[in-house]
């Protein structure tokens, strides 16, 4: 395996990006813990004091909303450092819109005009946020090369999108889709799509556990099983010969992350040297 150093500026930018992603993940975890803890505390106080009014109900709804959007954000951030990171960022945008529109709905007058429009925006963004969270967790398997996993993943992602669309269309059309008289076939179709969605969500990760990827490039130790590494060094080049087991580990990590072996090796070296 051959590795070529990247410029210091690129390494620093990647380190800052990784640090930002790590901080965002921690923030999402703290948001989940704090939000649900606050909701529990407010609920307990309200029940014990006997004073549970509209304000307390809105506070509980707000904290539950913060916790729920933090959970979806954590799912989106799972692939923020992977090749498919754009999907994660789109999911984060959907979660942010869900949070904003949800807060507006919670604290506005529910009898005032415009409630339906805000609810449609909230419901649509919420469905998209959950769907992208679902998809982003499955996209952790996007680097697998086995055909059964790749095609199973693609089919499941299509089913996730179909479920989201079939949820959203009746909301945005005020029930014009599917329309009077079409509810039965629409429900049946939705049931079929939903079953395939659940099936793929369960089967694909299980297959990924038992069906291992073969290394994309067979890298063996040219010095024998007892040698750890050979590192000829020139002015701008470092070549490493890895033992077979370590080479396979690098290839497997590269497949899981959806990157090439050199990138996976460099990432591992950076983490080890920090």
Query: What is the helix/strand order?
Result: EHHHHHHEHH
- Order of strands in the sheet with the most strands? 1-2
Helix content: over 70%
Shape: globular
Total individual domains: 3
Low-confidence stretches: 1-7, 216-235
Main sheet: strands, sense, barrel: 2 strands, antiparallel
Radius of gyration from the alpha-carbon trace, in angstroms: 24 Å
Task: Work out the strand percent.
Answer: under 5%
Q: What structural category arises from helix and sheet content? A: mainly alpha
Number of strands: 2
What's the tally of helices?
A: 8
Mean pLDDT: 82
Q: State the distance separating the first and last CA atoms.
A: 22 Å
Keywords: Membrane, Transmembrane, Transmembrane helix
Transmembrane segments: 27-47, 59-79, 86-107, 119-141, 153-173, 185-211
Structure, explained:
The structure is a single chain. This protein is mainly α and 274 residues long. The protein has three domains: 20-139, no CATH class; 144-211; 213-274, no CATH class. 71% of the residues lie in helices and 1% in strands. It has eight helices and two strands, in the order βααααααβαα. The protein has helices spanning 8-49, 54-77, 85-107, 115-138, 147-172, 183-210, 244-257, 261-273; strands at 2-3, 238-239. It has a two-stranded antiparallel sheet with strand order 1-2.
